[in-house]
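SAMPLE LOG
Freezer: B-3
Tube label: C17
Construct: single chain, 574 aa
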Amino acid sequence: MSLRPMGLPPVPEQTVRVARAAFPQESLAIRVRDRLGEVFTDEPFAEAFGVRGAPGLSPGMLSLVTVLQFAENLTDRQAAAMAIRAIDWKYALGLELTDTGFDHSVLPRFRARLVGNGMERVVFDRLLEHCVDAGLVAAGGKQRTDSTHVVSAVRDLNRLELAGESVRAALEALSAAAPDWLARAVDVPEFAHRYGPRVDSWKLPGSKVKRDQLSQVYGQDALRLCRAVWSPDAPAWLREIGAVDIMRQVLVQTYTVRTSSRGKEVVSKREADEDGVPPGHLRLASPYDPDARWSAKGDDLFWLGYKVHLTESCDNTPPEAEAEAEAEAEARGLPKLITDVTTTLSTVPDVKATAPIQQQLADRGLPPAEHYLDSGYPSAELIEAARSRGTVMVTPVLLDRSAQAKSHTGYDKSAFRIDWKARQVRCPQGNTSTGWHPVRQRERDAIVVEFAKTDCQACPVRPECTSARRGNRMLTLYPEHLHTALAAARTEQKTKTWKDKYALRAGVEGTINQALDITGIRRARYRGLPKVRLQHAFSATAINVVRLDAHWTEHPLDRSRTSNLTRLSYRLTA
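STRUCTURE (predicted):
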């Protein structure tokens, strides 16, 4: 398929006349075409298409269809139907009223081409560039970030179901790719009887003994199939089939293979305490989405899928408003736009996403002066690194979690006086440390301070200071600049001024709510991390389009579709 860059075609006169008559107050699709038409061009997609072959549909037009699709939370079939029957969509796409549109299968192929060429964020970035040029968002100012869970587009399987379904998925792939080889390698009728229907489509055995027997059968079948695929006379390309490799990984993470005292090979299910299991970030949970992971948040939330981080601007007035009257500046308030969207595996902690998010904002020329985050994002190193780049992280740092700090009766780190020049620490009883040891802990620089056992054992308040069996107190400190920054942050966050300032972060919860209501962002439409990233990039683009439309019209929501409370929530965050 080739590309002939044309962009969105001009809107035909008849389409203009009918659309203006049908929508005297316009619609979101019409305003997007009139105000943002230059965003949806073909040139940014040129690398994803060849120069030979039949010309395909305009990627600029398909990207606009996808944005409108997410803005109205439509399926591919519904979006393709809208391009045929909706007058305002025909206006936005520059189509004749008699145009028959395109088949819905064009949209998934378009998304696959974007993912295959690393273009998941092209439309999001172009819209953001347009907003920067229009003065709607700029570097500096305030931005806030929060994350939410994303449920994958696959079924939840327990370990037994996963073992059986992984064998079934591999058999399905092999029967399509190499049917003749599979007929020679295994007993097809037997396997078809066992793996024809989905594993979760029938009721598993009720007794533990029968479930263990079924689990052993699944393991033996997986091992037999793996040995057949990896045998010398099997075609080497069979091992490159994704479902086959996933079956192999599930076999390793679920079973052990031993030789009994009688010399018989025994396949048994792994026990976490005895045999060990892979860590959560490596453990496969579905043969159909190798990137989905089980994760938990608190005691109530447990999900299979991903995590998405949304960052938005939260300045109510434009940067140049400082010299204007306060009332006029308020009247010219800017829309709060999403400036970054980052999707990760569900097992990646928020603190690991902080640096990438801030780097992506800097790459777009939108580093914030103040970055509001919750307590899951900061660390001493990140706070100091952001400050060196001109960004203040307004975030509650985690308090001292030592046993002494938790009890509120012992001597925590704040009770000790540190002399950084002399490399000594004085305890509350006046004793001086005898050891100062720079070390590396968890890939970080740290300092371990040790007090003499003779001083600690004779100390009258030793129970309030340490209960260590070694008999003496030891402290682990950050390097001086990090320790000082962390102590200052902990002191500041206890003040009312800081708490009032930090209240601004709460508004990002409304943004996540809006993304959930409009685009269904908490449920993955597609399988695999790259495609889920594409979904979230288009979801963020759709939210920005909705907010820009609210900014243009000063009428953000349709009263007939939302409650007063919901509309107020959107208005406060839009």
